[in-house]
Amino acid sequence: MKKFLSLLVLACPVMVWGQPNYPQHYFRNPLDIPIYLAGNFGECRPGHFHSGVDIKTQGKEGQPVHAAADGYISRIKMDKSGFGHGLYITHPNGYTTLYGHLSDFAPAIQKYMHAQQYAQQRWDVDLQLSPTQFPVKKGQLIALSGNTGGSTAPHLHFEIRDGKTEHPLNPEQFGLPIIDKKAPVPIRAVVYNLSNGFYNSYQHAIVLHKINNIYTEERENVTFLPAAATDTMFGIGLEVNDYMEGSDNTLAHYKADLFVNDSFFYSVVLDNIGYDETKYINAYADYPTKKKDGFWVQSFFQLPGNHLNSIYKDPLHNKGYLHIPKQLSDTQPGIPYNIKIVLTDDFGNTATVAFSVSQPPHPFLRRIDPNNLHPSKILLPNAPNTFESPNLKFELNDRALYDSVAYTYNEQQDDNKLSAIYKICSADIPMHTAMQLSIKPNKPISFNLRDKIVMMYTDGKDEDGQAAGNIDMGWYKAAVRSFGTYWLAADTLPPTIKPLQKEGANLNKAKQILFAAKDNMTSVRKFKGMLDGKWICIEQHGDLLFYTFDEHCSAGKHKLVLSAADENNNEAKITYTFTR
After folding, report:
1. What confidence tens digit (pLDDT) does each residue in 488-510 have?
2. Which domain holds residue 547?
3. Cβ distance 73 to 141 under 8 Å?
4. Residues 189 and 321 in one domain
5. How many domains does the chain have?
6. 216-257 confidence digits (pLDDT tens)
């Protein structure tokens, strides 16, 4: 069992971790306009840490994008989500830069990419290039900014990566010309009683007010943990935003140093987070609070199943857990532990949070009130977990959970569905790797429906599904990534395809032709456009399918046949005529 040092005997000298030794001013601003940020490195985003900086483009597309330093274009990637139209440059100093959400590439690059799309007959290409194909100089035009992929407004996503590990690094640590004189703004602190695990914890929120340049509780600066007959473990979380001049967007701080009784205890530094690690955001941040209340609380302790080690500085090797020995008396106040958190942004602006934690009796808000708890059934981190009932079973691998989970399970019969409805734990508990979930139907499945079964899911708010495979003895199986409510349904309807222009329209002045394509249960998995019997490059962006007119569409009348299929291979096809 891991031993935790009592704070009563904590005597660690103040330790300060400096900024990384990255080359300064080697990379230029990739745009011709001043850098104002819509997002920065390490921000909490759904399912990931933000991996670069989002540079505002004055609310429009088409801003010239330049190579940040000498090098060569090593990769071109076209994606319906993520970075959309993305360009990568490898530099001789061992770094790689990424430019995302672009609208177009420079003419020679665009021509090459477009030729590869038609050669492969797919729009979502991922092209690896040699150093001699497209060498570039610092400041050379490489693209135009846009709003493609997972972008919701025009901007440029810019990353600097370690060329060996491919880990994104914090671009603001490279001396980019950014002006920021605003300190982080803490909003609330949260104290978690972690003795029974994070997902069955008690918590107490402290609304912070700035008093004499310190963020603290307005009236009472002592937070009480409940009296306990055993040792108590607790941890600290913080809701905090950072800002910069010229932008109203919230940003992330760079570093948080935690002190206890004036001694350094723990630190979090937001830098060097790999794409294979980025989903640990769901362990670093308070996922249940984000799901329920909509705001991010960042935690200064490392859950047992959180294997993102690079951001934590842990001199006492206690994972940020704080230890209060058991209390001998319910009436005798415990010694308060003075908590101080110093927040620093990328430009050295700081804010300080201070409050105290003690231990006479005090009610905490319980995070979860389990219903239908299976006796003695606890799902554990860093170990495989399985469950099986007559009509439901699942498997979780040893990386699926971040902390222990009290397993709750509810089965509800529904004659209108192909199976019972199963509620598995809570949708407010995150899962790092997929769960292999199998459900047995509650009625016979006809032969023509066996490849049309969908595993439906709801978190209590939204509802969607994915194709489920038929396995032995009538079970249907899918890899699912969330706890919540599941059931089986049949999907026999193809996607709907709707032209967003009138039939027979004259599109001589248009740049694109657009269609809305959506499936009622799963997703549009594949699609194809044939113009006058020949393949054309149709692109997907969300529920939109569109064709940008190119040399393959001459002047005159045309017939476009567009087909789209869902995950269960239900296919729709429409014919659309137009004139150019």
Report:
1. 999 999 999 999 999 999 999 99
2. 496-579
3. no
4. yes
5. 4
6. 987 655 565 555 555 678 899 999 999 999 899 999 999 999
